[in-house]
Amino acid sequence: MSEKLSDTARKTTLEPLLENGWAMVEGRDAIHKTYEFENFVEAFGFMTRCAIWAEKWDHHPEWSNVYKTVEVTLTSHDVDGLSSRDTKLARKMDKLADG
Amino acid sequence: MSEKLSDTARKTTLEPLLENGWAMVEGRDAIHKTYEFENFVEAFGFMTRCAIWAEKWDHHPEWSNVYKTVEVTLTSHDVDGLSSRDTKLARKMDKLADG
């Protein structure tokens, strides 16, 4: 279905994410971001918008929520690391977080 | 707004939850449960139903989701431990998990 991100793709698609609040997870080929919202309704609303895209693209985040905070980790279990599906979903989540 | 669960309340309202898949969190006066669903849509559907009640009751879970698994921790930060709002929300979540 997909392949691990190539070195070239890491430069072109991963780096912009790392400059936008995403960070590599220690010890895993995965990326992580913490989103903060105004309140629970905004936080869960964001999760709901993301959930629909995640299901549509059949690529699901590992995520947690405590009140207005949402923590997200993305990786592709089938390739045991980051694939283009992660960078695509990360970009979508960043857009959805903006409204 | 609420008080820490009394010893009596722990017998009457907490024990039934501990017999229904909830467990005390080590080192915290909090309860935890892992819910497993058929797939992501069922898991996130459950979270959505819970989110509406959590907001309505102004009492929110700490929770995480990975595909079809939802992990929930409940505690009342304002009383630094379990209150009746946790046992009430736990019972509601168990009902919502059943459909």
UniProtKB/TrEMBL annotation, chains A, B:
EC number: 4.2.1.96
UniProt record, GO biological process: tetrahydrobiopterin biosynthetic process
Main EC class the enzyme belongs to: lyase
GO molecular function: 4-alpha-hydroxytetrahydrobiopterin dehydratase activity
InterPro entries assigned to the protein according to its UniProt record, in alphabetical order: PCD_sf, Pterin_deHydtase
Pfam family, one: Pterin_4a
Keyword Glycosyltransferase tagged: no
Protein name in the entry: Putative pterin-4-alpha-carbinolamine dehydratase
Gene3D superfamilies documented for this protein: Transcriptional coactivator/pterin dehydratase
Highest taxon in the source lineage: Bacteria
Similarity comment: Belongs to the pterin-4-alpha-carbinolamine dehydratase family.
UniProt KW keywords: Lyase
Ranges in coiled-coil conformation: none
SUPFAM superfamilies (alphabetical): PCD-like
NCBIfam families documented for this protein: PRK00823.1-3 (NF002018)
Catalyzed reactions: (4aS,6R)-4a-hydroxy-L-erythro-5,6,7,8-tetrahydrobiopterin = (6R)-L-erythro-6,7-dihydrobiopterin + H2O
HAMAP family: Pterin_4_alpha (MF_00434)
